[in-house]
Amino acid sequence: MLRLASYNLHKCRGLTGPHAPERNLAVIRDLAPDIIALQEVDFRFGARPEALPRALIERETGLVPADITGTSESSLGWHGQTILMRPDLARSAVLRRLPLPGLEPRGAVALRLPRLTVIGLHLGLTRSSRRAQLARIAAKAGRIGNGHVVMMGDFNEWRDDRGLEILSDFRTVAPGPSYPAPLPRLKLDRFAISPGLELVAAGVFAGARAREASDHLPIWADIRLP
């Protein structure tokens, strides 16, 4: 069984600042995931320097970041996204970058493991862009996946009845409201789980530090591989 998680870090600024990545790392440590997809891990402008310091990750959480090539040396992720995982999983992991269409620059990251492919995503702000982006991801997942796929991240979609039609072959799970963190009302963060994977449990991690560390609460899901 694996614990998967997704967390929009909001550049480690909490709701209004200051920049304090130790808070986010403490939340990840308490959540204890095997694999976690992160969004907004880099600052947005210039060389996009890392907002989540690479040097602190393994020491504070026991996890390691995916090896993302082709980005700035000062950046941790690609389009602000990365995936952290247990070191033993990293030894057999292969990561691919997936460019996405839309009005603003977006991309997803796909982590392929021997029995599972995890796709971290942060979709656009307009529903038309989100639909096009999900269509691209679903098409790519069928080519690079190895039978079992989990998409997870900030879908930026608050409705359950529209915008996710392309994922009809997946089990879409919004564990609960995750935004805004102090008083969550919107289910922006989700999982999309392919058939054959057993969802054992899922939830929103709402510890006191999580409400202060970002504008999103992290979500988690325990899945069992067949």
From TrEMBL:
InterPro entries with a match to the protein in the record: Endo/exonu/phosph_ase_sf (IPR036691), Endo/exonuclease/phosphatase (IPR005135)
Keyword check for Zinc: no
GO molecular function: endonuclease activity
Gene3D superfamilies: Endonuclease/exonuclease/phosphatase
Keywords, comma-separated and alphabetical: Endonuclease, Hydrolase, Nuclease
Record-linked Pfam families: Exo_endo_phos
Domain Endonuclease/exonuclease/phosphatase: 5-216
Protein name per Swiss-Prot or TrEMBL: Endonuclease
